[in-house]
UniProtKB/TrEMBL annotation:
Transmembrane segments: none annotated. Residues 210-311 form the HTH araC/xylS-type domain. It comes from Ramlibacter aurantiacus. The keyword Transcription regulation applies. InterPro entries: AraC-bd_2, AraC_XylS_family_regulators, Homeodomain-like_sf, HTH-like, HTH_AraC, Tscrpt_reg_AraC-type_HTH. Gene3D superfamilies: Homeodomain-like. PROSITE patterns: HTH_ARAC_FAMILY_2 (PS01124). The keyword Protein transport does not apply. This is Helix-turn-helix domain-containing protein. GO terms for molecular function: DNA-binding transcription factor activity; sequence-specific DNA binding.
Length: 322
């Protein structure tokens, strides 16, 4: 099944166009965007990629204002937009920024926001919030701010986005899944340029959490990984390590289990690891009990590891998953 999609409001009744756009964006990209254009009919053209985890689109708009239909829904995807043509003004949480061509900005549709735009062309990525929040704990203070892409990490990230859009028709789903996580990590570097006005305490906590996350990712396969081991490795108290994760609503051990499940899912979807037993994959990523792993996998992804792998094998063979 093709993951490339395109739609346009051309040929539809103008009064219907904002609703058409909202419905398509929710269906394809899991993002809730409401459009208003009181002074003239609204038109758009959208070409995008909609995979399991990686989702992005090139959009062309007439003048309009965008707001959220997903306020309060913490699982709503984050909106990252790179402006190619035109100017926009974005607002969220009392912040307001003017976005010029070449600028990027990030919006969280789970909280109220506004984007006022003229004739624009934009490349947008719709990011799952969990990964980005895990590497950028101060994320809520960085939305609706212009991210420059002319130098440094911003320029590197812009190049990554340009390459992603250029290769959209050649992406394979297992690689695309991994790329979705990679985008969040690359974006975290570009966002570093925005934290200069944060209080020192906030920056220090963010730095500590980054050190902890780096250690966790490097030692995720360790069956004995726990808060005490992490605290000793990064030379912080166990209580403080717990606090850094509790403040973001995802306890430390839940983060570890969730990350292990994500790695197992990626390996189960990989054709290169098709001969590796499910139990072997589970043990490799730090699970001690295969039955417990299978229950946790089903609870997280809605299917058993065996059924998940079988579905991917059918897709690779050219069939369809049930």
């Amino acid at each position: 099944m093709s993951r490339l999609h395109q739609f346009t409001t051309a040929g539809h009744a103008p009064a219907r166009n904002p609703d058409l756009f909202r419905e398509q964006m929710a269906r394809l990209f899991s993002v809730g965007l409401a459009i208003s254009s009181p002074d003239q009919p609204f038109h758009t053209q959208v070409m995008g990629y909609s995979g399991r985890h990686l989702r992005f689109a090139a959009l062309r708009f007439t003048p309009h204002t965008t707001s959220s239909t997903h306020v309060g829904q913490r699982d709503s995807r984050l909106l990252l937009s790179m402006h190619k043509e035109g100017v926009a003004v974005v607002q969220q949480d009392g912040r307001e920024s003017r976005i010029e061509p070449g600028d990027m900005f990030l919006i969280d549709p789970a909280r109220p926001f506004s984007i006022e735009a003229g004739e624009v062309v934009a490349h947008s990525v719709y990011l799952e919030p969990g990964v980005l929040r895990s590497v950028v704990p101060e994320l809520d203070t960085l939305t609706a701010r212009a991210i420059r892409s002319t130098e440094g990490a911003g320029a590197v990230f812009r190049g990554l986005l340009d390459a992603l859009f250029a290769q959209a028709d050649r992406l394979q789903e297992p690689a695309a899944d991994r790329m979705a996580d990679a985008l969040s990590h690359a974006l975290s570097a570009a966002l570093c340029s925005l934290d200069g006005d944060q209080p020192p305490t906030t920056r220090l906590r963010a730095m500590h959490r980054q050190r902890i996350l780096r250690y966790l990712r490097e030692n995720l396969r360790n069956h004995d990984l726990d808060a005490a081991q992490v605290a000793a490795a990064v030379q912080l108290s166990t209580r403080y390590v717990y606090e850094l994760f509790e403040q973001d609503g995802q306890p430390l051990m839940k983060w570890i289990w969730s990350s292990r499940l994500e790695r197992c899912r990626n390996d189960l979807a990989s054709p290169a690891l098709a001969s590796r037993a499910i139990g072997e994959i589970a043990y490799f990523w730090g699970f001690n009990d295969v039955a417990h792993f299978s229950r946790a996998f089903r609870q997280r992804f809605g299917t058993s590891p065996r059924a998940f792998r079988a579905g991917h094998e059918r897709l690779a063979a050219g069939g369809t998953s049930s």
